[in-house]
């Protein structure tokens, strides 16, 4: 069975909603050296053989990354080539190569995707989808890039009342910018 790995950029107070301007496609601070974070992201992307997204995040990525193919960091090339699955009942033509729209019941679609052939499935952003799949127990690993920012409000990954199974720590890594990667696998016992 394929693993579903959720990677999120998150504030110290648990906010993953980037609408407050604290995070963008190039990171949080244009003057910060985040090359070590970029290298870690590229390593993670290389292991993921598919990408699962909610419609809003898909449209944000589709509006940015196709125009960044051929850049030295390789992120645009990877995102253009990787099989992408977008959960939506309203999206028409996805207009991005290698994209499949999943229109059925979310939990059933993701279970079927995980049961299929292939390696790990990455997921990022997509707060509503992340919460739905967390509640359904379908996420196998959480990779949280914690930024030293406190917003005091915004959409949180784990809203009040969220219950998770035991999380097993896998990795903790501090980057030059002060960002910390916290990586957890979901305990199945």
From TrEMBL:
Checking Gene3D superfamilies in the record gives: Dihydrofolate Reductase, subunit A
Q: Name one Pfam family in it.
A: RibD_C
Coiled-coil annotated spans: none
Record-linked InterPro entries: DHFR-like_dom_sf, RibDG_C, Riboflavin_Biosynth_HTPR
Gene Ontology molecular function: 5-amino-6-(5-phosphoribosylamino)uracil reductase activity
Any single GO BP term: riboflavin biosynthetic process
Q: Which domain of life is it from?
A: Bacteria
The Bacterial bifunctional deaminase-reductase C-terminal domain, residue ranges: 4-181
Matches recorded under PANTHER family: 2,5-DIAMINO-6-RIBOSYLAMINO-4(3H)-PYRIMIDINONE 5'-PHOSPHATE REDUCTASE, DIHYDROFOLATE REDUCTASE FAMILY PROTEIN (AFU_ORTHOLOGUE AFUA_8G06820)
Query: How is this protein named in the record?
Result: Dihydrofolate reductase
């Amino acid at each position: 069975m394929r693993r579903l790995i959720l990677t999120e950029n998150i504030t110290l107070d648990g906010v993953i909603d980037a609408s407050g301007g604290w995070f963008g496609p190039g990171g949080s601070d244009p003057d910060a050296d985040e090359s070590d974070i970029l290298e870690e992201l590229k390593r993670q992307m290389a292991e993921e053989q598919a990408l699962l997204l909610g419609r809003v995040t898909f449209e944000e990525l589709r509006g940015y990354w196709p125009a960044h193919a051929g850049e030295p960091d390789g992120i645009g090339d990877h995102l253009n080539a990787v099989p992408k699955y977008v959960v939506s009942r309203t999206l028409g033509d996805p207009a991005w190569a290698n994209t499949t729209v999943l229109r059925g019941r979310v939990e059933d679609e993701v279970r079927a995707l995980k049961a299929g052939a292939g390696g790990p499935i990455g997921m990022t952003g997509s707060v509503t989808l992340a919460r739905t799949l967390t509640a359904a127990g379908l996420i196998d690993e959480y990779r949280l890039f914690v930024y030293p920012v406190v917003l005091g409000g915004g959409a949180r990954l784990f809203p009040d009342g969220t219950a998770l199974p035991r999380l097993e720590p896998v990795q903790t890594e501090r980057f030059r910018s002060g960002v910390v990667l916290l990586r957890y696998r979901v305990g199945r016992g």
